[in-house]
Amino acid sequence: MRNDKMTISMDVVICTMSDDELKVVVRKRDKAPFAGRFELPGVFLKADESLKEGSRRCVRELTGLKSVYMEQMHTFGEVKRDSRERTISITYVAMIPESLLVDDYGELAIDGAEFVSMTEMAGSKKMAFDHGKIIAKTLDFFAAKAAVSDIAFNLVDEEFTLPDLQRAYELLLGKPLFKANFRNKMKNYIVETDYMTVGAAHRPSRLYMKIG
């Protein structure tokens, strides 16, 4: 395919847990195609960088964060997914605790970006290109991954409450979990700290940390 022009885009689903649901960071396009619609953050891959380097550059340039959980999720390569030119999207997911993305007032600390609900945007025409499809694919990826791994820990702070960790798992799996069963399953992965939550609307809760 030496005579065909082709572009590789590194698109990243930057997600967090906020307001009791999964949220994704999006920007609103100000030009055609799809002007006025939301899009996922992305960059074009440079000739001298790896896929991982390109995806991390995307997150770093947008959030300023250099060390976050990231994983390659899927490749989207439909011929007409971008009307301007043939574009292959290699999509990564980045999972970040909300506290690292918001300011002291709880607002998203990224100029020109906002949080939107992942479930609402999954498959939605409010997203530019096929980015609604990408979000829907990400939810399927999360459900499969959370069932066999500890990725939910990436949505909570280093010190967390058990209700927060359980909610993170429930959102990723897409189903409720029984409190007693969940806590029994987690007992070998977490350790109590000497601290409790303060200033919360409910009574103080014990804070835990992940082992290892």
Structure, described:
There is one protein chain. This protein is an alpha+beta fold and 212 residues long. It contains five helices and nine strands. The strands form two sheets. Strands 1, 2, 3, 4, 5, 6 and 7 form a seven-stranded mixed sheet that branches. The protein has a two-stranded antiparallel sheet with strand order 8-9. Strand 1 and strand 2 (21-28) form a beta hairpin. The longest helix has 16 residues, at 131-146. It is elongated and about 60 Å long. The mean pLDDT is 94.
Distance between the termini: 47 Å
Shape: elongated
Helix-and-strand structural type: alpha+beta
Low-confidence stretches: none
**What do the pLDDT scores average to?**
94
Oligomer: single chain
Radius of gyration, in Å, reads 19 Å
Number of strands: 9
- The helix/strand order is EEEEHEEEHHHHEE
The proportion of strand residues reads: 25-35%
Attribute tags:
212 residues; alpha+beta; two-stranded antiparallel sheet; 28% strand
Task: Describe the SSE topology.
Layout: E1 7-18, E2 21-28, E3 38-39, E4 42-44, H1 51-63, E5 69-76, E6 87-95, E7 113-117, H2 118-121, H3 131-146, H4 162-173, H5 179-186, E8 190-196, E9 206-210
Parallel strand pairs: 1-6
Antiparallel strand pairs: 1-2, 1-4, 2-3, 2-7, 5-6, 8-9
